[in-house]
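Could you help me review a protein record that somebody else here produced? My question to you is simply how this chain folds and whether the tokens agree. Thanks in advance; the entry in question is below:
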Amino acid sequence: MTPDQTYQDLKDLAEKLGFIVSEQSFKRTGIKAQSGFCKVKNEDLFIMDKHLAIKKKIELLAEYIGGLELESVHMMPAIRELLDQYKPINSESPE
């Protein structure tokens, strides 16, 4: 799977989870801004700096989604495997 396809699959998964990934330019904001999850007018968004490298976009989105409850969400095995790498350590279930 190409990085562009992986990123698109993560954005599609985000929509399934109830939030939208919106790419924005932070260069002219006049403030130091970072990509991340936020609520704007009661809408859940993940604002992504559109000037980031595709690998960094994947990492940021995977970090956020990997911390969510995903057990009952259907997704491609490659995406689930990627997200498993970003699960918080304390969320692993005891064996």
